[in-house]
Amino acid sequence: MSQQQKAESCSYQLWGGRYGSQTSEAMQALNISLPQDARLYADDLDASKAYAEALQRAQLLTEQECDLLVKSLELIRYDWIERTIKFLPSDEDVHTVNERLLVALTGEVGQRLHTGRSRNDQVVTDMKLWLRKAIRETLGRLRALLSAMAAQAESQLGVLMPGYTHLQRAQTVQFSHWLLSHAFALREDCLRLSELRDRSNILPLGSGALAGNPLGIDRVWLAQRLGFAGVTGNSMHAVGDRDFVVDFIYCCSMVSLHLSRLAEDLIIYSSKEFDFIKLAESFTSGSSLMPQKRNPDSLELLRGMAGVITSSLTGMMMTLKGTPSTYNKDLQFDKQYCFQAYDKLAQSLDIALGVVQTMKVQREQMELALSPDMLATDWAYYLVRKGVPFRQAHQHIGRVVQLAEQRGVDITEVPLGELQQICAAFGADIATVADYARNVEQYECVGGTASSSILEQLRLFKNYDKELRQQC
Ligand code: ARG
Fold first, then answer.
1. What pLDDT is stored for residue 10 in this prediction?
2. With a 6 A CB cut-off, is 72 part of the ligand 1 pocket?
3. Does the chain have fewer CB atoms within 10 Å around its N or its C terminus?
4. Is 141 in the pocket of ligand 1 (CB under 6 A)?
5. What is the set of active-site residues?
6. 287 against 399, higher pLDDT
7. pLDDT value of position 255
8. d(CA 222, CA 54)
9. CATH code of the domain containing 378
10. Are residues 140 and 199 in the same domain?
11. Residue 434 and residue 326 share a domain
């Protein structure tokens, strides 16, 4: 049987010349990565087209041969898109399938494509091509979420709520300030992803199996042709390097961790006890037993997903730990971890977007939850403005709080005379520090909860949105 007939029919293996017997079924089942790496087909074809051109530039292919390969690779792309490819049991991975189909279309010319190339430099190149798109799409989703958060924050400017530390009422803040606090964490994630995209955009192709390429392939030209900013500097490092996969999964884990924290706040705020937020019905579900229930399942799933995504991170890191230098087959598992992290994060980001866009902010409930004990810090600042050292002011207000508690009244109900016995600096103007809305406006320093500061934060997000638009 000719190579071409073989390629079309029963089996096609990229190796095996030195083999006398068949691979065991169990081994074949474990060895096959096609179900995971089929999604790299377009990247594999793109890299192969560029490699064919590099071979022609190195005079290892004629112009006609190169044209034939490039056109045939495009035909194979159609087959993938149309889902007309019949996979064979011997199709170990996406690279095998593409080569088998190419040889079926072009015969001996197709067999020249792998000259000087190894699946070791091929697969890592494909992964890097895929990663660029994955980062762009993740940034696109993050951008949509950030702009939905900024839109909510803008429309709710002036809405007050209790701000919590240790989940205990701490100080009055604006709802927008709270929401933007989560947006700031997600913005860091975007910066991390952009940095990773730039840092990892270095071409490994031309590293061969491990020793490099001896056939005069112009790697710098190849890098430019494939949109990479440079070429990897050490072939042995390049073929065994999956740190960029770890970095990507780490970025995904951080996003999911941030979504999980947002989800946790929203779960608490949407409980009847708080009632600060009403989730849209479309993002909740009922109970099979209790007819009244409306559970925040979407948010619980977001929170749980952080565990799933982070399990990919530890899985990937444990895969790398202990592998000797260069390529080892353990690395094949990179795809399942990487794709799982990407897919689950995409799902999570879509849910988070939907929740933020549709949630109803219960202004009245939030403002009803404000209580005079939360004025204590502002009262201390009041004394500071009267010249009292902060430590002493803190002590004085502590005594006021204690007194109020003993009497079962609010601090605002302690008569001025008694306040003055605790600290002579108290004056009648302490009454003005009882206005929550006025109090938040003191925090106008950069990053604070005053309206002017929040408007500044929103401006930052608008500018960042423009920056992100160019990257997505
Ligand atoms: N399917 C393999 C992977 O994803 C491709 C590289 C195979 N290389 C090898 N030397 N067997 O890692």
1. 61
2. no
3. N
4. no
5. 166, 287
6. 399
7. 98
8. 7
9. 1.10.40.30
10. yes
11. no
Which residue lies with its CA nearest to atom 12 of ligand 1? 332
Q: Which of residues 368, 383, 404 is at a domain's end? A: 368
Alpha carbon of 264 to those of 51, 147, 271, 299: distances in Å?
Answer: 49, 21, 11, 7
CB 411 within 8 A of CB 373: yes
- Count up the domains in the chain and report the number: 3
Is 96 a pocket residue for ligand 1 (Cβ < 6 Å)?
no
Residues of the domain holding 252: 120-368
pLDDT of residue 8: 63
Which residue has the CA at smallest separation from atom 10 of ligand 1? Answer: 120
Which ligand 1 atom minimizes the distance to the CA of 37? 4
CATH number for 103 = 1.10.275.10
Mean pLDDT of 165-170: 95
Cα–Cα distance between 272 and 23 in angstroms, integer? Answer: 61
> What are the DSSP E strand ranges found in 81-210?
160-165, 168-174, 202-203
Q: What is the CA radius of gyration of the chain?
A: 31
Interstrand relation of 160-165 and 168-174 (parallel, antiparallel or unpaired)? antiparallel
Boundary (domain end) residue, out of 343, 368, 393 = 368
340 Cβ below 6 A of ligand 1: no
Residues 272 and 420 in one domain: no
Please state, in angstroms and rounded to a whole number, the distance separating the CA atoms of residues 298 and 82: 34
The yes-or-no verdict on residue 6 having pLDDT over 80 is no
With the most atoms of ligand 1 within 8 angstroms of its CB, the residue from 332, 333, 337 to mutate is: 332
96, 122, 123: residue to mutate for ligand 1 pocket, most atoms within 8 A of CB: 123
Tell whether pTM > 0.90. yes
Q: CA 403 from chain center: how many Å? A: 50
- pLDDT single digits (tens) 283-330: 988 777 777 778 999 999 999 999 999 999 999 999 999 999 999 999
Q: What pLDDT score was predicted for residue 9?
A: 61
The finding on whether 120 has its CB within 6 A of some atom of ligand 1 is yes
